[in-house]
Amino acid sequence: MSARTSPVGDELAGRFDDVRPLRSRPPFVLFEARERPGGRRVVVKVPDGVRHLWVDGLLRTQATLLGRIGSHPHVIGVLDSFTLDDGRPALVLEHATGSPRDAVTAAPEPLRAAIATGIKLAGALETVHAADALHCDVRPDNVFTTDVGEPVLGGFDEAVSTAPDASRFPQHVITAYTAPELLEGAAPSPATDVYGLAATLYELVAGHAAFREYAGESAATVIVRVLGGQVQPIVAPDVPIEVSDLLTWAMSADATKRPPTPAWFAEELARIELRQGWPRTHLVTG
Asked: What local confidence, expressed as pLDDT, does residue 53 receive?
């Protein structure tokens, strides 16, 4: 469907130039566009389908969270927000549409690029946690590459507040990267995001996910595979054993047996950089 045959696309075309659909990830649709004036490229995120108050509230909550942490160089930036004609909210986001898989594969030293990406994303997650939130859905499809080639964390649709008086909403998306404790209905913790980050790095390093996921299969099938399976070591001539060991440790089924925080995980990655003789990637938080 083209932007000009979608009611929302028609409305956005009245606000932006070069509007075109980017992707649909229920309950949201994303469009690429250029701002007026100036022509800056952006991504516009709007609810899909009919209006639902919980979806509207979710997008406004994301706007608030990203407004607090979006200045971090490795968190997707929110540039603006506005209200559609029917009252639904919309977010204008930083243009970051590249794939970390492609960026790592194209790098002169893919393993070094993957490790650096992990440290940068760990800094993003530490910043999220300091803002009293947990991401709960860290996976390759929620990591993007900016127009200048830097990885940024996005996809905050499943994020939850850790404030004492906050309500925890159920997990809506089940994937092969979802931490086992979430699949079992337990409360998330910082170690939950460590699992997602390790699962993401596992795919960037190994070239495939630790647990395979197939089109059309049920969430129950994914849950059984993750809870009943074991993360296999990465056996490849260009992957040091210490990298494989770290990733399998950080994907332990028991959350208490993982590195407890993204910063801890990042320090382990930094030790690998040191032993490999690579330049240190700085952990940026706050």
From this structure: 84
pLDDT at position 1, please? 46
Output the pLDDT for position 3. 54
Please indicate, yes or no, if residue 284 is contained in any of the structural domains.
no
Residue 49 corresponds to which amino acid?
G
Q: Which range marks the domain in which residue 42 is found?
A: 3-94
3-class SS at 200?
A: helix
Same domain, 145 and 21: no
Contact between 283 and 124 (Cβ < 8 Å):
no
Q: What is the CATH number of the domain that holds 34?
A: 3.30.200.20
| Domain co-membership, 39 together with 124 | no
Three-state secondary structure readout of 13-42: HCCCEEEEEEEEECCEEEEEEECCCCCCEE
Helix (H, G, I), strand (E, B) or coil at 63: helix
The token pair that represents 239 in the structure block: 């992957």
Please say which residue of 94, 111, 144 terminates a domain. Answer: 94
> Alpha-carbon distance 262 to 120, whole Å?
10
Identify whether 21 is part of a domain: yes
Q: Which helix (H) or strand (E) holds 82?
A: strand 78-83
Exposure of 108 by Cβ count < 10 A (0-12 exposed, 13-18 middle, 19+ buried)? exposed
C-alpha span between 186 and 18 (Å, rounded): 44
Q: How far apart are CA 100 and CA 145, in angstroms?
A: 6
**10-residue stretch averages of pLDDT, the chain, 286 residues long:** 65 95 92 96 91 86 92 96 93 96 96 98 98 96 96 95 77 88 94 98 97 87 91 96 98 97 98 97 95
**E strand or H helix that includes residue 121:** helix 110-130
Beta bridge partners of 153: 75, 143
In the chain, the N- to C-terminal Cα span, in Å, equals 40
